[in-house]
Specification:
homotetramer; 286 residues; Rossmann fold
């Protein structure tokens, strides 16, 4: 059984002394640091850090860590920081339309216990994936969306997310535009998989566009969605080689393997609290 | 010593019997086929083929092969075809501006005898690369280009290309737009290396744009230039992984290795006569 | 609905005229060739071919194609050939032990209708994967193997394979040595996934060995098993970059994604009848 | 012009407080940290760190930094550490036999000013590469090696290395075993490029072995040599996809591109002082 840990993800203007102050804070209070990674963006002059320590002998009561840390260092260094505890599992909602490959990949990992995550529900605009949800015993809510009912259905979705304490959303090939309200509420917490190496082939039918252009590689991109289409912070990308022999159909098939792996890598990083976003980019800790 | 061979690259509307007719033509006349690859584009219904055979015992006189082949099959199948002989070396002109990495890579291969090619001259709009040309003993023509002299300088370039019997041109990071006349004269015979995975980051400063967008992979693309910027048929692409830790400077450095390898792979395929273009795409034989 | 086709996979000593004879055989008899790929191994002087044609108007009755083809060309060219019809689905048995990632990947594709295959049963030496089999409604046979009962259990397995008309076997991380009898009976029809880039790290615990050696890439290899451990014909391999920061645990996790994708790519090629084996190597058609 | 910096590479048993002590040491003395990366090997319980700071206002005289650092922290933490100054360029000797691709790649980068390195000489057992050395104006010493003269020639080599203040050696496809004395003298300072993804295909003719085995990927490995053949700490590896269509000749050609890029990446990391070795592995800082 892994020991309970605390994790702090932070960024702030770079100044001398941050690392030594933060590590001192933990070691002086008997915390055992098991992870420390930091990065300085020298263009923006911003310091980023992820630190994790075992709580067993930590002198500060858990409920006071955030307050102490903020008082001592957060204010001093103008930090943006988040504190997590390892036993607070992220709660993931999956949105899906008609394709199963990403959904199966997510649920297979979840079901095998690979990830420290809860999946309280799956939301879809179609019935197609209900049998998959049932295989894994996960509640499935079908909310078909038309021009007329969009606002109302999204209200129901938001209510479902709230009721289930959802902390982040995965769009596993969900073919609907997400409302600005939901994006604002889950800022940099909605992960989408786009089936091209962004920024190439933004928008619909990227495989058709790739075929048309005659590219020799195709890709997939996992990113946090923002209100601008396919323009949010990129988390992970990968590509696969194709040739003139590939048809649109074989491109789509090769792409499916990319999509599911790239999406799952991004989801894993999010679950592990190893992603910080700044402006429109991500810092991904190892 | 490799035996002399003939190579035919052809395409035509797909119909039954082409392969058997073409292979019969060669084997009946005592040619020994050493390479045959074909491909059918089933969307466009076009048949593509590359065939190579040893000439040693071939019954048809070399100077008549083209005529016989055209009469017997070219017309029957409405073929576009080109006949090459293995001892007719392609003659390559290199255009370069100020960066040496692609130039060195091309000349090192040429100098080591890796490629069946002649390099009669290097053309540049700057003096910077003259010492590299001199190292390899290749004539270097510096034709600085301004708004006022562009037409005149290009005339000189065209004359140099004609005088040297140039069959194809490699733009080894040449930072000038090529004239429409030259593009028309060397249609699908001018290979450019663009420092992004096209169609992402068309135009100038792709590494800056990639940095700005926060991509996790960068790429390079070798393509035949056409009159539309960075939109010609793609020959070869490759990518390399980057992270948030990369600066514009390290992107540029990682990109250099991509650029030179991708360009050289494309040049090699061209030299080996393994590329056919159709509409705006390439068929690349193995 | 795709039209019914016939597929011939063949190899024989290379001689002039094979392609034209085979393509003539089909076109003369009104078959419409929709796939033709061939390859000549010039070291061994062996000709390999895969040809597929639509049967709609084919003049030769289906049950006589094999006989005619053999009489006309098989004997003339000393061919080894196999004839398949597109509506004869391969029947795949999956062998599994305790890990679910490859099993889920296979079943998700099967369940989504990506592959033209039947999966009549899953065989295991453990109970662990029964719930996964049940999710997909596939019969699961648990045959625990000890030193004492190995021969007897394998007899039962062979009987199950026969009763279910199994044409090929996929070892989806099955941690038992397969009997020589089964290997002989399913020669080059048992696909294994080995969790290293063979021939590196043959045998047990390759991730531990990779960690120990400090490699910067890890891989996975799908191959047909033979009686020599991890030495059969390689079908597909892929790799992923690792660093000094990876632990054995993270190597295993990164490796899982490789294993399942590499295995599924190999299985797909087998299902599509695009693999020929010769000596200890594979020819993989596109 | 980049400001002068000091770099410390260190490792020691992991204990709380190292990072804060080391960063304090620098910031208290007015050093401006521009690079800090650290890593803890939790299996071996070893802490690794690379730190770099600008010397402009640094309070401790340069010639005393090593002494002060050792007294204050080196002994306290049982550190192994090395101090470098950015203006002390590493001095690289290149050993080469008959192949030019790696040599050109190294010299093109050197000549273009990509690397902060000096190349005072090239040593070879053949005359073949002398023209390449001459192109770049680098002294070339040809020391042919036979069974009888090996010891004597190596003595001359060692003298040349000493006379030229060589700090590290690059074996750019040098086909001779290096003497134990030279290996001992340049411990983990001799970089070799092996033309396979080690540990597969150790020893001579790896491309022939790869062809024989029918692998679907080939690789190259840069490593520090030790007295055990091809078994030293791995610095960098990369691979490229191959198919059944590749011959030994095309494998060798594809491999050349891998070899030169992998070797140059390793050399760059060494020049940048971003490699630590521990036991038989490398820690590579970004």
């Amino acid at each position: 059984m892994a020991k309970r840990t605390a994790i702090i993800l932070l960024y702030c203007p770079d100044r001398p002394g941050i690392i030594s102050d933060v590590t001192n804070f933990i070691t002086v209070n008997q915390g055992n640091i098991i992870y420390l990674d930091q990065y300085v963006d020298r263009v923006e002059n911003i310091f980023f850090m992820r630190i994790e320590w075992q709580l067993e002998k930590f002198a500060i009561p858990e409920e006071k860590i955030e307050d102490y840390f903020n008082t001592l260092y957060g204010q001093k260094y103008q930090m943006h920081f988040r504190l997590y505890f390892s036993d607070q599992k992220p709660r993931m909602a999956i949105f899906v339309s008609k394709m199963s490959h990403c959904l199966y990949d997510l649920l297979a990992r979840y079901s095998a216990g690979e990830w420290d995550v809860e999946v309280p529900l799956i939301i879809s605009n179609h019935e197609d994936m209900r049998p998959v949800a049932q295989k894994f015993g996960i509640p499935y809510f079908c909310l078909p969306i038309t021009k007329d009912n969009k606002a109302k259905q999204e209200e129901i979705e938001m209510q479902l997310l709230r009721d289930n304490g959802i902390t982040f959303i995965v769009l596993a090939r969900y073919m609907q535009v997400i409302s600005e309200e939901m994006i604002a509420h889950y800022r940099h917490k909605i992960i989408n998989i786009h089936h091209s190496f962004l920024p190439a082939f933004i928008g619909a039918k990227p495989y058709h566009a790739a075929f048309e252009r005659g590219v020799k590689i195709i890709g997939a991109t996992a990113h946090y969605i923002t209100t601008e289409l396919d323009a949010g912070p990129i988390i992970e990308q990968d590509v696969v080689r194709v040739t003139h022999k590939d048809t649109i159909e074989t491109l789509i098939n090769k792409g499916k393997d990319l999509e599911k792996i790239v999406l799952s890598r991004a989801v894993q990083k999010h679950i592990e609290r190893k992603i910080l976003t700044f402006k429109n980019k991500t810092v991904i800790f190892n």
